[in-house]
Design brief:
single chain, two-stranded antiparallel sheet, 4 helices, membrane, B box-type domain-containing protein, transmembrane helix
C-alpha cells in the first residue's frame, strides 16, 4: 500500500488523516475511502474507472465460443443435439450469472453486451436443440 506524506489529510474527509494514496490518481485516502483492488489502494472514482475499463470475464468469452460451436455443431448431430443443448444451457446460466455480477458492481461494464449476447445465443441454442428433438420425435413416431 502506498503511504501518504506525514500529516496528509483525506481528500474527501479533511478531518481524517490519510492512510493511503490512490494508486491511479494519487489523491490521499482515509480508511473509509480506501478500496483495495489486488494489493493497491484506490479511491471510489478510480475503482469505478477500473471497472469500466476492465476486460469482459473469460468465462463469458468461453461461453460465447461454446455457443457458437453449439450452433455450428447442430446440423452434424443427426440423432441427439447434445453439444447444442450443453452450449445453450451454459450460455443461459453463465450469461445470466455475469449480468448479475455486472448489476451488483462486481463485473466489468465492458462485458455487458457480451453477456447479453451469450445469454441470447444460449436461449437460441436451447430453442433450436429442442425443435430438433421435437422434429426427430415426430419423424420417429410417424414411422411407427
Amino acid at each position: 500500500m502506498t503511504s501518504p506524506a506525514t500529516g496528509a489529510r483525506c481528500a474527501q474527509h479533511p478531518d481524517a488523516a490519510a492512510v493511503a494514496t490512490c494508486a491511479r490518481c494519487g489523491s490521499f485516502l482515509c480508511g473509509e475511502c480506501t478500496e483495495v483492488v489486488g494489493e493497491s489502494p484506490y479511491c471510489a472514482a478510480c475503482v469505478g474507472m477500473l471497472r469500466r475499463e476492465a476486460k469482459p470475464s473469460r468465462v463469458v468469452q468461453a461461453a460465447l465460443v461454446l455457443n457458437v460451436l453449439g450452433l455450428v455443431c447442430l446440423p452434424g448431430t443427426l440423432v441427439l443435439p447434445l453439444p447444442t443443448l450443453v452450449a445453450g444451457l451454459a450460455g443461459v446460466v453463465l450469461g445470466t450469472r455475469e449480468l448479475r455480477r455486472i448489476r451488483r458492481g462486481e463485473g466489468p461494464m465492458r462485458g455487458l453486451t457480451q453477456a447479453q449476447v451469450v445469454r441470447a445465443l444460449g436461449w437460441g441454442n436451447l430453442v433450436l436443440a429442442t425443435a430438433w428433438l421435437v422434429a426427430l420425435a415426430l419423424l420417429w413416431f410417424r414411422r411407427s
